[in-house]
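Progress report, Aim 2. The chain analyzed during this reporting quarter is listed below.
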Amino acid sequence: MSSATPITAKEVRFIKLGRGAPGRRAVSEGANAHTEVRMEQSHITQACLSGDWAAIEAHWKQQRPAEATKIVNQTKDFYTLGSNALWITFYKRKTILVLR
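Predicted structure tokens for the chain:
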């Protein structure tokens, strides 16, 4: 019997990854344990890293007005909750766990 290290997290959240999200691609390519996902260095990523939530909101209100608030809230939480948060998403009937 193998011993696994338990996952502990202060916060647990669901996040919906977009069609081109690197986490989705990693799982579809067969990753099943630890996979490092590098964030694309776009203007959106830079705005998230600097905490420019008004720019993020403006972007998503233009791209997806009906979902903008939900997307901004998830994104803000992802960048601000810290390393003790566990993020869960699903892709092709597989579970993706994202630890920051």
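The beta strands are 11-14, 85-91, 94-99. The radius of gyration is 15 Å. These observations will guide the mutagenesis work planned for the next reporting period.
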